[in-house]
């Protein structure tokens, strides 16, 4: 099942399929390891609901929902 | 003598790079800025223990990649490409191998000797994991040394390896050998070789990645890539070369380097929460996160500024014997309560500087120095200098406490918690901490803006920091509001003070939004960052950090701040025809027939006084109306001087009308009576002082932290904001119906900006 990263529920895991967006934001996502094929788990949301904290490539990354919207995921069961 | 060899340290943020640098260079480290940007540059010299070997070491900023988007990345890239260090030491966090090696794969592509320092191996072993260093070394093709920067293990071995490597040149190598773009990269590399460009492989790959800097520098070769693109189509990536390269790097890392890491199977299965995870569960908890943050913030300010520590005094604990009559009177506690550490330290410094000032004054008098000479030294030079130095303990303490939060990893979580709130104002959650520090002192607050990644965000934050009214502005507030309440016969001074603090915050927020809509238009900077694992801050690093800041501040105090205080002293102590005005601060009397009323400063005040008419303290005032203008000028040395100036002028007016024991209230009251200023005018005066150019120490800090050429605009910004807001306060306070005029003006300005931006966007679309 395909789903955007910003629609994930806490604890949900998936594999990155496509990273959209452009320029600075996209490059930054790549450099932080958000590339197709990487496994991502949504750890938590900030107290006000945004940004998100995810586990990727063995470390904790935080990104906003707007930025997570660019990341298309294949949900893992 | 041979030229010193130069090694560069490169690595991810939080990889222990600075710890390694500190361990290698010790006391030789020197901190400055990279030219043109406000990114810290650290340099030092390594001396080997056994041999007489010396190496100059430069600490590159912490980076995740060599993309051209952040100033840190551009600096690191340019240093390695242009300055050609003799060896690059790439520090890699062994507990986070996968992401750290991403940078390594890019460094490998440069024609420079490279050694990988595998840091935090002790952590890896503690977890029961294993890393096959031999295999890693074989895969990378460069030496790998296991170290612990924290425990200073194996550092000499690392440096020996690096010295060996620096003796022979290394050709760049790439992990993209078997990727979809190998052919293209090879061709572009050959083209670069033809142009006799150094580091052809690195440039070739970056150009293929559509890197901003490369495409600008080599438009001819871009055509080559474009031509290839036409013949190329991949099923998953299309012609998105940037994605292909990033993906290929990570694929290679997972294929070859991930297997060298053998995870402890037990840990993997138990899924035990690490210490860091447990701490994080509480600190960023949905319900507890924000309250915990507020408590921590309160404690920091309480430890630094409270004069009734833990509110023991307010709870009725008696504090009687406060060493009355001895030099230690009021040092540790007063009748009101125990002093906090920050206040005790400040008292100590003041005790010491007062003693020196007195000693030098007596010495000069004994040596028959002229009266003006004694005053120049004691009031002008030392007085100004010491009033700035008296803030040093609290500035440093505040800085230390915030550094502890930063180093422990909590600051990143604060940004995480608050980002949602601050994004609306055009800044990220990271900007919150510097702003809130402004309530203590603008100096450490402005320095702390270094944690902000985006240049515009930094400038905007530095500009609004003074609006968060600092500790030194509080005396102005209490004195003026106290006098107002006595004058009116009703009201609550604390409420007015609180209102002024709120006004400052509102002005800050409005200014941020305005800047984002006009001069700093653009997207809110992205918020994609690592949340580092929590760890204990290191005493040594904190002290080195603090020492740097202290050195920097003292240097400023003795140069720019000293010079400005002497000028202000001169202006208020001499008449335009060079007669000296003598004033005794203790008896509050003038010893010469000439008074401050005759000084150059008063004359300047009289000239500029009409400018303040819309603010309520201009031409409409009777005699001595210039005191407010002059007070604002002396406030530039340190904001508490404003009230001291009033005291001086009360002596000019005649005699002080004593109405209250609270500090400064009588002085302000006297001046209100003498000048006939109305209440709205006094409040406008408070607002003006809160929002205008901060003290010289803060201006000097802003100058150091801002990009070249931005300071003059920043000063203009402070002047305009304080002028507009104060006139708004005065006019609305005096004639309530002007509220509607202001409302119309604000709406018109808002609409003007909206339509101008719309017009500009449309033009951009067409153009």
Describe what this molecule looks like in 3D:
The complex is a heterodimer of chains A (77) and B (767). Chain A is an alpha+beta fold. Chain A has a single domain, classed as Roll (SH3 type barrels), CATH 2.30.30. In chain A, 17% of the residues lie in helices and 43% in strands. Chain A has two helices and six strands; from the N terminus they run ββαβββαβ. Chain A has a six-stranded antiparallel sheet. In chain A, β3 and β4 (52-56) form a beta hairpin. The mean pLDDT of chain A is 91. By secondary structure, chain B is an alpha/beta fold. Chain B has six domains: 5-166, Rossmann fold (3-Layer(aba) Sandwich), CATH 3.40.50; 182-269, Helix Hairpins, CATH 1.10.287.1770; 289-394, no CATH class; 410-540, no CATH class; 564-739, no CATH class; 740-767. Chain B has 32 helices and 14 strands. In chain B, the strands form four sheets. A seven-stranded mixed sheet of chain B has the order 2-3-4-1-5-6-8, sandwiched between helices. In chain B, a hairpin with a 6-residue loop joins β3 (40-47) and β4 (54-59). The two termini of chain B are 60 Å apart. At the A-B interface, α1 and β5 of A face α3, α11, α18 and β12 of B. β5 (59-63) of chain A pairs antiparallel with β12 of chain B.
Question: How would you summarize the topology of this molecule?
Answer:
The complex is a heterodimer of chains A (77) and B (767).
Chain A: E1 2-4, E2 13-19, H1 23-31, E3 39-45, E4 52-56, E5 59-63, H2 65-68, E6 71-76
Antiparallel strand pairs in A: 1-6, 2-3, 2-6, 3-4, 4-5
Chain B: E1 5-11, H1 17-25, E2 30-33, E3 40-47, E4 54-59, H2 71-83, E5 87-93, H3 97-107, E6 114-119, H4 121-126, E7 130-131, H5 133-140, E8 144-146, H6 155-166, H7 182-194, H8 200-208, H9 212-217, H10 219-230, H11 241-257, E9 261-262, H12 265-270, H13 275-283, H14 289-305, E10 333-334, E11 337-338, H15 341-366, H16 371-389, H17 392-408, H18 410-423, H19 432-437, H20 442-447, H21 455-464, H22 474-488, H23 493-517, E12 529-530, H24 539-573, E13 583-584, E14 589-590, H25 600-608, H26 627-634, H27 641-653, H28 665-675, H29 679-691, H30 696-705, H31 711-734, H32 738-766
Parallel strand pairs in B: 1-4, 1-5, 5-6, 6-8
Antiparallel strand pairs in B: 2-3, 3-4, 7-9, 10-11, 13-14
Helix pairs in contact in B: 3-11, 7-8, 7-10, 14-17, 15-16, 15-17, 16-24, 17-24, 22-23, 22-28, 22-29, 24-30, 25-26, 26-27, 27-28, 29-31
